[in-house]
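Reviewers of the previous submission asked for a worked example of the structure-prediction workflow described in the proposal, so we include one complete record here. The input consisted solely of the amino acid sequence. No template or homolog information was supplied to the procedure at any stage.
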Amino acid sequence: MYGLTDKTGWEDLELFHENGQRIGGVCLNAKRYLRAHLPDLQADPTEREFAQAIQRYLADTVCHYWFYYDEPGSEDFYEVPYDAPRNASGIKPRFADIWHPDERVGLSTVQEAVREFARAFLGIENCEVEVTDAEPLETAIATFKEHERLFGGANPVEIHFADNVVAELAEAWGTTQEQALAKLKASL
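From that input alone, the workflow returned the following structure tokens.
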């Protein structure tokens, strides 16, 4: 989230209403992640439908969704509490993937994907997305530095903050880009 490493290919998200009521969990996937796993899925005859859905998504520029359903009578049966597509048995999904058209997941990807999901399934047109349980910047940098100490050897990685990361954090923090960059540099 802070740009210390490359953006990820997927991220698990927990969604809540502003009153704290849990909506549910989703897995946000980006193109690079699903593209990397497509050959293995195509080789598995039981994954044909899933692989075809990924191929359609990879050729598109909008969010796609994949839903996971429980079997009727399942011991841990669960349905999402929001309006979602039902399967042939009339069951709502237990879990959803959001397949976003970005190549990798960054803060802006999370915000855009959650807004689109809220519009499509929750009936919320103007969704404000807030990351509430993010690791504090200082903790993230300390963890990164420890990782570099352990694995960076004699040539530790020099930390630079990309312009797009600074812009995303400035927006998230409600500051100017200069103030965000100063905060990032001060935390080193």
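Helices lie at 31-42, 48-58, 107-122, 137-151, 163-173, 177-186. We consider this example representative of the routine output the project will generate in years two and three.
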